[in-house]
Design goal:
heterodimer; A: five-stranded antiparallel β-sheet; B: seven-stranded mixed β-sheet; four-stranded antiparallel β-sheet; 11 strands; 56% strand; globular
């Protein structure tokens, strides 16, 4: 089955700096790559996603890149703010498999004011 | 739509008791997922359904766990008998298979003492 690795497990950045989280996946058939943000005590919520026919996608301060050849994708957060502090999860899924989402282990991001 | 609805939000039970967690997916979604979240193991997929049919239950820890989806608007996850190591937050998520984005419920925090 699919295996998703995520690094780093924790990330501390100064407010205003950028944060980068990287994920790799194992199944070349995966074609959908969402990123979820989970604040303490709350549910994971989708913040951005990318599909296999796209190499990069941006939404304000966040962007995701995908390299299908290398089977890795990354989340970039620019101009970080304290409210960006949370746990971020990457995931991969295969439409043909009913969009079964396999998650990475998560990255705890702390933005220091 | 109110989103994915889970009940109860919190459950404290004694070891050996039966526990039933409930989930109502978003209307129109045809895929439903049960995840377990712990600090040690992160977000683990237990089972998922597509059009009410269980597709992959390879994540179910053992025979003490069972899940049903009798119709498109309701699913249960049952643990019998419960054990302290089952203590975790259990999330239900649903998606529309063609699009991929999964929406999570608020979760059920289960404590087995």
């Amino acid at each position: 089955g699919e295996n998703v690795e995520q690094h780093p497990s924790t990330l501390s950045v100064q407010e205003g700096d950028s944060a980068v989280i990287k994920c790799t996946y194992s199944d070349s058939a995966s074609n959908y790559f969402p990123w979820y943000k989970q604040e303490l005590g709350k549910r994971p919520q989708l913040i951005i996603d990318i599909r296999s026919n796209v190499g990069e996608k941006k939404d304000q301060r966040i962007a995701v890149t995908l390299n299908k050849t290398a089977k890795h994708f990354s989340l970039h957060i620019t101009e970080t703010q304290p409210e960006d502090s949370a746990v971020y999860f990457c995931a991969a899924s295969i439409k043909a498999a009913g969009n079964k989402l396999t998650f990475g282990g998560g990255t705890r991001v702390l933005v220091k004011p | 739509d109110a989103g994915v609805i889970q009940s109860p939000r919190h459950e404290v039970t004694e070891m050996g008791q039966e526990v039933t967690l409930r989930c109502k997916p978003i209307s129109g979604h045809n895929s439903l997922f049960w995840y377990r979240q712990t600090m040690m193991r992160g977000l683990e997929l237990l089972i998922y359904f597509n059009n009410n049919v269980p597709i992959d239950d390879s994540g179910m820890p053992e025979d003490r766990f069972s899940a049903k989806m009798p119709n498109a608007s309701f699913s249960t996850l049952k643990i019998q008998p419960s054990e302290p190591r089952d203590s975790a937050v259990y999330f239900c998520a649903s998606s529309f298979g063609g699009l991929g984005e999964a929406f999570f419920g608020q979760g059920t925090r289960l404590t087995v003492v």
